[in-house]
Write a structure and sequence with these properties.
Layout (H helix, E strand, L loop, with lengths): L19 H5 L8 H5 L10 E7 L3 H13 L5 E4 L15 E2 L6 H5 L4 H24 L6 E9 L2 H16 L5 E4 L5 E9 L2 H14 L3 E3 L4 E6 L4 E5 L4 E9 L17 E10 L15 E6 L3 E7 L2 E9 L12 H14 L7 E11 L6 E5 L5 E5 L5 H16 L7 H12 L4 H16 L13
Parallel strand pairs: 1-2, 1-10, 2-7, 4-12, 10-17
Antiparallel strand pairs: 3-6, 4-6, 5-6, 8-9, 9-10, 11-14, 11-15, 12-13, 13-14, 16-17
Helix pairs in contact: 3-7, 3-9, 5-9, 5-10, 6-11
The chain binds flavin-adenine dinucleotide.
Length: 452
């Protein structure tokens, strides 16, 4: 242990090994996956398909569904190393965020395409929520307000500037005063039960004739002159017209012609004991998803009389599985929960970790690889992938079919993703303008009813 690192022991010993959504949604017990899914060692691998999708999370299932939509007669297989919903898709906080490309907030002032992208993605997120309600009833989708709370002068100044950009992008929002005179931005958003959403998407995919093979880890994908060969464990192989890689933070487990550039981020969550909602003195909190911009970035929602609370990132693996939560992270989350809800007596009863893949721009990598481009990457959704994976399934499907997207807005979105660089100038301007406000002693102000 390095000097000065203090090991903080948590007070509670919550259940670990699965997320609260997986546990309550009937996911296999850790280690009991073969029996629970009935899939044994990937026996059901087909020999040849039109499209192979690697990874049974939200990105993989959305891509497979988009492929089936575009080519109803095509044979499609999803190969999943563990079980559908094993990864981040079954462990996240379930927010369908209204700003899934936050970096564009920093560049939208100077780049018309990024301003357009913010508005377009916001519309597509709300469309996705309506589609889930109509076609995927198991998802538990519900309307909530996303509340981003600034807890200090600096973040409040930044938030007010974000408010101005949201106005420019014509995105509905409200700046409100919350406890102790602090500021928050409210925006319309939605939440889902993440694990049930993935399972319901898998059920929909099966109904559309898509084969899903669990316990089927893929080891390598390579192009041949006329097709792509996908190799798995136990010498299994299949040939496909194209393969789409949707393996998120696990992409390093695959041999690919050119791996994507993204880092693996470990994020942690807890679900607390049950409590009476009246004890929370915060009106309407049960209809919100709250993000606190504080010394730590934390996010939480109420789900079935518990707080599901997340935050704290790490860049190194810990323990024997990525579900494991380091003791100091658990102690930190316990402390943060108590700070967000003082005096309510909340303690973590369940805790889990998850990993996501983060690019420098926080935008996904949806690109062709290999000499003919028959290997498509659909990865790097970072911490905003719940809605974004579903919005982007048809972009990846289009590339796998060898086409630019048919929808002009999809083509525009893909071009915007592929051309975005880290907007160092935009970020610097943003930080400088917040700093200027502070230097001038300009207090962030809550606009009145008329928005003045
Ligand atoms: C704690 C946490 C909270 C989050 N909260 C939110 C939130 O509230 N809102 C939001 O928008 N985003 C959130 N995210 C991010 C979001 O969950 C992800 O961006 C999204 O789920 C990514 O989906 P995916 O399908 O790309 O990845 P995954 O769900 O990780 O799917 C990848 C799948 O590929 C499989 N796989 C891996 N390697 C192989 C292989 N070699 N062969 C076959 N299969 C393989 C894995 O088993 C896995 O099932 C959160 C993430 C975490 C970790």
């Amino acid at each position: 242990m390095p000097p000065f690192t203090r090991r903080i022991e948590p007070r509670s010993s919550p259940a670990t090994g699965r997320s609260t959504w997986q546990r309550h949604g009937g996911a296999p017990e850790p280690g009991g996956e073969l029996e629970a899914t009935g899939a044994v060692s990937g026996k059901a691998w087909p020999k040849r398909v039109d499209f192979a999708v690697i990874g049974g999370g939200l990105a993989g299932l959305s891509t497979a569904l988009a492929l089936a939509e575009a080519e109803p007669l095509a044979s499609i297989v999803v190969l999943e190393a563990r079980f559908v919903g094993f990864g981040a898709s079954g462990r996240n906080a379930g927010l369908l965020g209204p700003l899934p490309a936050p970096l564009w907030l920093a560049s939208a002032d100077g780049q018309a395409e990024h301003l357009w992208g913010l508005t377009h993605l916001n519309r597509r997120v709300h469309e996705t929520a309506r589609w889930l309600a109509a076609e995927v009833p198991g998802s538990g989708v519900e309307a909530r307000s996303l509340r981003i709370e600034a807890q200090g002068f600096l973040t409040a100044s930044g938030l007010v500037r974000v408010g101005r950009l949201l106005e420019k992008a014509r995105l509905g929002h409200r700046i409100v005063a919350v406890a102790r005179g602090q500021l928050a931005i409210d925006m319309d958003a939605h939440t889902v039960d993440p694990y049930r959403t993935v399972r319901a998407l898998a059920a929909l995919a099966r109904r559309k004739g898509i084969a899903i093979v669990e316990q089927a880890p893929v080891r390598a994908i390579a192009e041949r002159p006329d097709d792509v060969v996908v190799s798995g464990e136990w010498g299994r192989e299949l040939a496909a017209r194209a393969a789409v890689v949707c393996t998120n933070a696990y992409t390093g487990s695959l041999a690919l012609p050119e791996p994507p550039k993204a880092k693996v981020v470990h994020n942690f969550m807890v679900a607390t004991n049950r409590f009476e909602i009246e004890r929370l003195v915060r009106p309407g909190v049960e209809r919100m998803f709250i993000v606190e911009l504080n010394t730590a970035y934390v996010f939480y929602r109420i789900h079935q009389d518990r707080i599901v609370y997340g935050g704290i990132e790490r860049f190194k693996p810990y323990g024997s599985s990525d579900f494991d939560v380091p003791p100091e992270v658990l102690a930190g989350l316990e402390r943060l929960v108590a700070r967000s809800f003082p005096g309510v007596g909340l303690v973590p009863e369940e805790a889990w970790g998850g990993v996501y893949h983060q690019t420098a721009t926080d935008l996904p990598i949806i690109e062709r690889r290999g000499g003919r481009g028959a290997i498509v990457l659909n990865v790097g959704y970072g911490g905003t992938g719940v809605a974004m994976t579903m919005v982007c399934g048809r972009l990846a499907a289009g590339l796998a079919r060898g086409e630019r997207p048919a929808d002009p807005d999809d083509a525009r979105l893909l071009a915007a993703f592929q051309s975005t660089r880290v907007p160092i100038g935009g970020l610097a301007r943003f930080v400088a303008s917040v700093a200027a406000d502070i230097a001038r002693g300009r207090r962030p102000r809550v606009p009145d009813e008329a928005g003045r």
